[in-house]
Amino acid sequence: MFNKDLLTKCREPQFKEQHVELAPLPDIVNKEEEYEVEEVRNYSIQLLVHLKGYGNEHDQWISETGLPHAKKAIQDYWMRVLS
User: Fold this and answer.
1) Closest CA to 23 of 11, 8, 5, 38
2) Would you say 29 and 22 are in contact if contact means Cβ atoms under 8 Å apart?
3) Which of 59, 61, 62, 65 has its CA 20 to 30 A from that of 42?
């Protein structure tokens, strides 16, 4: 339950920087939303990392660049995957 008296009405933007353009609606192709990619702005591979001495519930998704001291483990992973 929420007290409606705590709500305030939405106000129109006062400044140009506050105005947000609405995003275009996606195309529907085979009953699925499809978006046009304008550009790729960042490339990052995330790896599911298992920490030594910890259980699987502690596994984490970490970007490859966030693992500067795990080069051997990353190299071993890619060898297994690409073989």
Assistant:
1) 38
2) no
3) 59
Q: 17 by DSSP, 3-state: which?
A: helix
Task: Tokens for 3, please give them.
Answer: 């007290």
**Residue-wise DSSP of 38-75:** --------EEEE--TTS-GGG-EEEEGGG-TT-HHHHH
CA 71 to chain centre: 24
Contact 8, 21 (CB under 8 A): no
Q: What CA–CA distance (Å, rounded) separates 81 from 51?
A: 19
Distance CA 68, CA 81 (A): 20
Please say whether the beta carbons of 22 and 7 come within 8 A: no
